[in-house]
Write a structure and sequence with these properties.
The protein is of the alpha+beta class. 47% of the residues lie in helices and 8% in strands. Strands 3-2-1-4 form a four-stranded mixed β-sheet. The protein is globular and about 55 Å long.
């Protein structure tokens, strides 16, 4: 039976509908993201990972039927076979911050090389988005019709907000290379950071409704700020790969969690690979910082032996 006690009504309804519709072909359902960690914003989605024993056209259409007419949902559907063949990047999402709602599967294992690959990919995605918006989407809007001008500005700001979420993910992942545990919430990450510019990136997400009008008017400063973080991350990986690898080897291994959002067991090592069951962490004290006006200063700040992120 699905573990739906205490869930929001809309989540409980979807989970129960998936279980009833998919039957024995369903392996597991996990809830994650800002809604699962009580960090949701007004436009946040409910995020699910749905793992199937198999998939065909009929099962895909059954899943489609469950979500028809439901707004603000995002589901990532994979089969057990697809998980076993999962690429080297993106594996951390199956280990951290997940609330098990039904069933259980073995996540694809990850190593320090996977963590470093994740950080490289996150840095690439951030700088691509920032530079694309800077070079090709910060146009002269004066000749455009008002409604189209508003659409483009809103879209540019939204895509850079997505890049900011990737930056938060990179900050979380970097903690693993520095020998720490994975901070599953933004508040937990805040408590570990001391760099003002890195804290300002978290504020982009937490204060988005306040900052959005400014960035919709002109997203240049936001693009420069995030691109500077991506450059800094690449530099850290370039100059400290051995140090970062040593930190990973010395780190306490992530642990498996019992069913539910706030439980855990002692660390466990499986042949040099990390495996972990999903868990949640409670709210922490929230500090607020407004992003600095000079985005270029991020490139000049260094935080120890950084090596390296995992809705946010």
């Amino acid at each position: 039976m699905p573990a739906t006690d205490g869930l929001p009504l809309e989540v409980r309804e979807v989970v129960e509908a998936l279980v009833a519709s998919l039957g024995d072909d369903l392996s597991a359902i996990y809830w994650h993201g800002s809604e699962a960690h009580a960090e949701a914003k007004p436009d946040s989605d409910h995020d699910l990972i749905i793992v199937m024993k198999r998939l065909d056209e009929h099962l895909l259409l059954r899943i489609q039927g469950v979500f028809l007419g439901r707004d603000n949902w995002s589901s990532f559907v994979q089969t057990e076979e697809e998980l076993r063949q999962y690429p080297s990047t993106g594996r951390l999402q199956f280990h951290f911050g997940l609330v098990p709602l039904f069933g259980q599967v073995d996540p694809p294992p990850f190593s320090r090389e996977n963590v470093i690959d994740d950080l490289r990919q996150l840095a690439l995605d951030i700088r691509f988005e920032c530079r694309y918006r800077l070079f090709h989407r910060e146009l002269d809007y004066t000749e455009m019709e008002a409604h189209y001008r508003k659409f483009l500005r809103t879209r540019n700001a939204r895509m850079l907000r997505y890049a900011a979420k990737l930056a938060v993910l990179a900050l979380k992942t970097r903690e693993l290379l520095q020998g720490g545990s994975y901070p599953e919430t933004r508040d937990e990450l805040r408590k570990r950071l001391t760099d003002e510019d890195e804290l300002a990136i978290i504020d982009i997400i937490d204060l988005w409704e306040e900052l959005r009008p400014k960035f919709e008017e002109d997203a240049t400063t936001l693009a420069l700020q995030l691109d500077a973080f991506a450059r800094k991350l690449v530099h850290e990986l370039e100059v400290s790969p051995a140090h970062a690898a040593a930190a990973v080897d010395a780190a306490g291994r992530p642990h498996r969690a019992r069913r539910g959002p706030r439980a855990g067991r002692p660390p466990r090592d499986r042949g040099g690979e990390w495996t972990r069951r999903q868990g949640d962490s409670g709210p922490a004290h929230r500090r607020v910082r407004v992003p600095r006006a000079d985005p270029g200063s991020l490139h000049d700040s260094h935080r120890g032996h950084s090596g390296s992120g995992g809705a946010t």
